[in-house]
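U., I forgot to send this yesterday:
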Amino acid sequence: MIPIPRIVRLLAAQVGFALAAVALLPTGAALAQPTGEIPPVFDEVGITERLGERIPLDLVFTDERGDSVAIGTYFDGKRPVLLNLVYHECPMLCSLLLTELTKTLQRMDWQPGTEYDVVTVSFSPTEGADVAARAKEKYLAQLGRPEAAAGWHFLTGNDASIQALADSIGFRFRWVEASAEYAHPAALIFLGPDGTISRYIHGMGYEPDDVRKALVEASEGRIGTTVDQILMYCYRYDADANSYVLHAQNLMKIGGGLTLLVLGLMLTFYWRRERRSMHPAAAA
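Result:
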């Protein structure tokens, strides 16, 4: 059974997708659309997960200062990277996604630029560094951590770089001429320090514990405490729940190991007590 909070988040993702669909329909088309039927424009929109594949680190983008940078600049071989694709003129979904992500980061002890980096890429080639700079200022202000500026990067780019990055992570979006907007999915993509894709968390609401686990998983143990490593052994990602859930088999292994340890300690204790009772002089 999926816990109630997980169900709520899954429904929220579907609601967001549906709201985006309605927003992209031409005037009056929303009323004409049969109930439960997704508009044809969304047939080519979505995410095909490419777990275990690497993004091309030589792709060149423009950062919020107007400098040309290879996306590989943000992969130092030590820290994982949380990647998300948005466009800042989006009237609904993208601002909600970034706001919810900011709230999640606020609730985490870890800091962008210390344990991990965040890279937000606009998939609209018409958006430039000025737009990225305003977005960075806005969401850093919401986050309330000025020091995170060194770890949260806002990039824009040309068609070729945007499409190459989107293809490498399986992110499919489409320009809708009738409404002059993009149809697109919503997700966080977690990448290892070498650019390897390790996890997707879909939708618009993100639990801090899930994001932390995804970052630990992406880093392959390079970040996090011993407790984090134990938790990663006890949890596994469940695509249906869009979250990390307890791994029953591993829990049974841990339980079995603890049982053997306790039995061993008890037997050792009784053996020593029996030995002392049989040889009191030796014990003295």
